[in-house]
Amino acid sequence: MGTDAPVLWQLRFSHYNEKARWALDYKGIEHVRRSSLPGLHVLRARRLYGGTTLPALVLDGRVIGDSTAVIEAAERLRPEPALYPADAADRRRALALEDHFDEQLGPHLRRALFYDLLPDRRFTAEAVTVDSGPAARAAYRMAMPLLAPAMRSSMRIDRDGAEVGRARTEAALERIEGELGPQGYMVGDAFTVADLTAAALLSPLVRPAQFSYRLPDRWPDAFEAFRDSVRDHPAFGWVVETYRRHRGTSAALDA
């Protein structure tokens, strides 16, 4: 696609951004990735489309914010391999599951994760600046005393929120197990946007080997304890297998 390639503005560490990356990669849509750092991404999003979150996809001169809208645009741009089922009823169900996990899993797992991460500011800085240069990592570490309170406020991170987050994550694992059919997919017998969304949003917990970027080797003890408590759940193993079967190779031109 050359100079006309779509541009994905992203946060490397974010599971919603992983959802958008996965869709573009799965469809083989060549794109350029431009990464922002948490906090600074708000300014970037406002400049791009007036929003406050990434990912945002620049496609044919227009900016598409939100991972769900990015997948919708990718589906129109390259219908095959399909993420939306051809059958109308199956499509409605897949989109409903996408929405369910977007609302009932994504923000809650993020809240539980950062509740455990933020007390260790050095680790948090290293995690969110994954694959950034040493200067960016050092600057972010210095900024953490200012950024941490802002992150707690914007994501409503507190003890009660973390407890709810862990409970919602466990509920999502149960929902996945209950929805899976004989072929290991939630809708019909093929991989759909429902499977992609659930697996991508659980990536910070499961940390599959095929995640787009290198993740830290050491994690805070509290979050590791939560991970250990659910790692034998069938849906945890399903995420590992779904990544292995369907994550594929990157379509990023600058990968």
Q: Descriptors for this entry?
A:
255 residues; alpha+beta; Glutaredoxin; Glutathione S-transferase Yfyf (Class Pi), Chain A, domain 2; 2 domains; four-stranded mixed sheet; 4 strands
Summarize the structure.
The protein is of the alpha+beta class and 255 residues long.
* CATH fold-level topology of the largest domain: Glutathione S-transferase Yfyf (Class Pi), Chain A, domain 2
Could you name the ranges where pLDDT drops below 50 across 5 or more consecutive residues? none
The radius of gyration over CA amounts to 18 Å
Name the CATH class of the largest domain.
Mainly Alpha
- Percent strand equals 5-15%
Which structural class should the secondary elements be placed in? alpha+beta
Question: Strands, helices and their partners?
Answer:
Layout lengths: L6 E4 L4 H12 L5 E4 L4 H10 L6 E4 L2 E4 L1 H11 L10 H17 L1 H12 L3 H8 L5 H21 L4 H21 L13 H9 L1 H4 L14 H10 L3 H13 L9
Parallel strand pairs: 1-2
Antiparallel strand pairs: 1-3, 3-4
